[in-house]
Design brief:
This is VanZ family protein. By secondary structure, the chain is an all-alpha fold. It is built from seven helices and no strands. It has helices at residues 2-31, 35-43, 48-53, 63-67, 73-97, 104-124, 132-160. It is elongated.
Length: 165
C-alpha cells in the first residue's frame, strides 16, 4: 500500500511540474513575457499573404548564421540554446507521464506537433516569427531530454543491478 501511495505521489508531482513547465513554455515562447501582445497590436494589419511570405521554410537558414555567432554571439546562444533547452524537459517528462511515449519516434512526433502548434499560433496571432529552424531546434531539445531520460534509466538499472530491456 505504501508503495502505491509513493507512486501516486510521484505521478502527481510530475504532473504538477509538467503543467507548470507548459505554462512557463507558453509564457516564454508564445507570450514572450508579455511582449507578444505589443507585437500583435502593431502587426494586426498584416495580410495572410504577407504572413506566409515571412515564414522561413528553408531548414538551417537561421541556424548556420547562429553557429557562426551572427548577428551576435549573445543572440545566437539565446536562440540556439534557448529553443533546445526549452524543449528538453518535454522530452524528459513525456515518458514519465505516458507509458506509450517511450521511444524516440514518439518523442519526435509529439514534440514536433507541439512545436508546430506554437509556430502556427505565432503566425495566426502575429505573436512572433514562424520558422522551420525553431521546429528543428525544439524537436532536437525534446530528443535531447529523452536521451537524458534514457541515460538516467540505464544508470539507475546498473545501480540497482536490473537488466536493461
Amino acid at each position: 500500500m505504501k508503495n502505491k501511495l509513493k507512486v501516486k505521489g510521484f505521478k502527481i508531482a510530475i504532473w504538477s511540474l509538467f503543467v507548470i513547465y507548459l505554462l512557463v513554455l507558453i509564457n516564454v515562447i508564445l507570450l514572450k513575457d508579455g511582449i507578444a501582445f505589443t507585437m500583435a497590436q502593431y502587426r494586426h494589419k498584416i495580410t495572410i499573404t504577407q504572413k506566409l511570405s515571412g515564414i522561413n521554410y528553408i531548414p538551417l537558414t537561421t541556424i548556420f548564421p547562429y553557429l557562426e555567432g551572427k548577428p551576435s554571439v549573445n543572440i545566437a546562444i539565446r536562440n540556439l540554446l534557448g529553443n533546445i533547452l526549452a524543449f528538453s524537459p518535454f522530452g524528459y517528462m513525456l515518458p514519465l507521464l505516458f507509458k506509450r511515449i517511450n521511444k524516440i519516434k514518439s518523442i519526435f512526433f509529439v514534440s514536433f506537433a507541439l512545436s508546430l502548434v506554437f509556430e502556427a499560433i505565432q503566425l495566426i496571432f502575429n505573436m512572433g516569427s514562424c520558422d522551420i529552424d525553431d521546429l528543428i531546434l525544439n524537436v532536437s531539445g525534446a530528443i535531447l531530454g529523452f536521451g537524458v531520460f534514457c541515460l538516467f534509466g540505464r544508470v539507475k538499472n546498473r545501480i540497482l543491478g536490473l537488466k536493461e530491456v
